[in-house]
Design brief:
The complex is a heterodimer of chains A (about 190) and B (about 210). Chain A is built from 8 helices and no strands. By secondary structure, chain A is mainly α. Chain A has 2 domains: about 100 residues, RNA polymerase sigma factor, region 2, helix turn helix motif (Rna Polymerase Sigma Factor, Chain: A); about 80 residues, Orthogonal Bundle (Arc Repressor Mutant, subunit A). Chain A is elongated and about 55 Å long. Among the domains of chain B are: about 45 residues, no CATH class; about 60 residues. The longest helix of chain B has about 80 residues. A 3-stranded antiparallel sheet of chain B has the order 1-3-2, with no helix packed on it. Chain B is rod-shaped and about 170 Å long. Chain B is about 65% helix and about 5% strand. Chain B is mainly alpha-helical and about 210 residues long. The chains are: A mainly alpha (about 190), B mainly alpha (about 210). Chains A and B meet through helix 2, helix 3, helix 5, helix 6 and helix 8 of A and helix 1, helix 3 and strand 1 of B.
Chain lengths: ~190, ~210
């Protein structure tokens, strides 16, 4: 294993090395995953600055609890589970539980957003409109969509991250997908 | 096959169907314009979302430093920071967050979470490196000068120790030379007296002392 450069080693190997006390191995993991965790937190919370602080918390918690990760191969869903817990804890403090279960409010979304000839989605405003459409979803639904579309997790993995049955995840994804389709006028 | 329904179509778009289920659904969609239309719309939604939900640029990168090298790192980063400050550039922001007491296994190093700025312009980087090198060279020059002074003092001391016997010998030789010189003078005076006495006897005049 030592013949492989540390930056190319798989997550599981780096987790074992970090457990043995290698800060360098942990830093490789941080560098590999920090941007993805940060982006997930930005999309989930809608706050870039909060997301950065939360991202630090996630990796601090990951380092502290690395010994509890039963299967080093499962670092990815485990890391996002920590990110999920950290983000939800933060959002509860910030907005209270009511906000977490808010109803869909499509009024703020521009109804004229449609796919036309060529690639109108290349326009800068399309990014903003998609973010607005996502923000209009309840946070659980939004998170399920982000984990599925952005990170490509399986339904079973999302269920672990969100700590709920797979059927609940499916309901969230189906509902969220359908809602986004309507909001984006497709 | 009957129309599979929206959820099955979403499963297919999100790649949650088995290969067998996917092939069956594909055969149906090829013959059903309604399902084909629904599927196309769902694929558009996925495509748009995938395009927009990309990795975001981080304002800074996270760095963990083990406890045993924290002192060195602080020193190193402090030097860099000083150099950067001289250049008017915030090169490295080091937020020391000591995470003592988090270790749950073995004896892992207590980390320090640091944050370094994600991107600097090329002139900023060059300026920081230039200042860091200048600072380092000045430090090395000072250390070299101190070492040279110490070496010179040691050499002088060593030379003093080595020359002491020679100086004693020289002093002995000088005193010996002085004695010989004195004896030579006495002998000359004696010879001169004898010569005068001898000349006085030959001329019949008494010799002068």
């Amino acid at each position: 294993m030592s013949a492989i450069p540390i930056s190319d080693r798989p997550d599981a190997s780096l987790v074992r090395e970090a457990r043995a006390g290698s800060a360098e191995a942990f830093n490789v993991l941080v560098r590999r995953w920090e941007r993805k965790v940060y982006s997930y937190l930005v999309y989930l919370t809608g706050q870039s600055e909060d997301a950065f602080d939360l991202c630090q918390e996630v990796f601090v918690a990951a380092y502290a609890n690395l010994g509890r990760l039963r299967a080093p191969e499962n670092l990815r869903p485990w890391l996002f589970q920590i990110a999920h817990n950290t983000a939800y804890s933060h959002m509860r403090k910030e907005r209270g539980r009511e906000a977490l279960q808010s109803e869909v409010d499509p009024r703020g979304v521009t109804p004229t957003l449609r796919l036309a000839d060529g690639a109108p989605w290349e326009r800068a405003e399309s990014k903003l409109l998609v973010e607005k459409a996502l923000a209009a979803l309840p946070v659980d639904q939004r998170e399920a969509i982000i984990l599925k579309i952005y990170r490509g997790f399986r339904f079973t993995e999302i269920a672990e991250i969100q700590d709920c049955p797979v059927s609940t995840v499916k309901t969230r994804v189906y509902g969220g997908f359908e809602q986004l389709r309507k909001l984006m006028g497709m | 096959m009957n129309c599979p329904g929206q959820q099955k179509l979403i499963d297919w778009v999100l790649e949650e169907l088995s290969p067998g289920e996917g092939e069956e659904l594909q055969r149906h969609v090829a013959q059903c314009s309604d399902c084909a239309q629904s599927l196309a719309a769902l694929q558009d939604v996925r495509q748009v979302l995938m395009k927009q939900l990309a990795d975001r640029e981080m304002p800074a990168h996270l760095v963990f430093v083990p406890e045993e090298s924290r002192a060195f790192s602080r020193g190193f980063l402090t030097s860099l920071w000083r150099a950067a400050a001289l250049a008017g550039v915030a090169a490295v922001v080091f937020l020391a967050i000591v995470l003592g007491g988090y270790a749950r296994w073995g004896h892992p190093p207590s980390p320090v979470a640091g944050v370094e700025r994600a991107s600097m312009t090329r002139p900023e980087i060059e300026s920081v490196i230039r200042e860091a090198v200048r600072f380092q060279l000045a430090q090395q020059k000072r250390e070299l000068e101190t070492a040279n002074e110490q070496l010179a003092a040691d050499l002088r001391k060593e030379q003093g120790r080595a020359l002491a016997p020679v100086a004693a010998q020289l002093q002995y030789l000088q005193s010996a030379q002085s004695v010989v010189w004195k004896q030579a003078q006495e002998q000359n005076a004696l010879v001169e007296l004898l010569a005068r006495n001898s000349l006085g006897r030959e001329s019949g005049q008494p010799a002068r002392p």
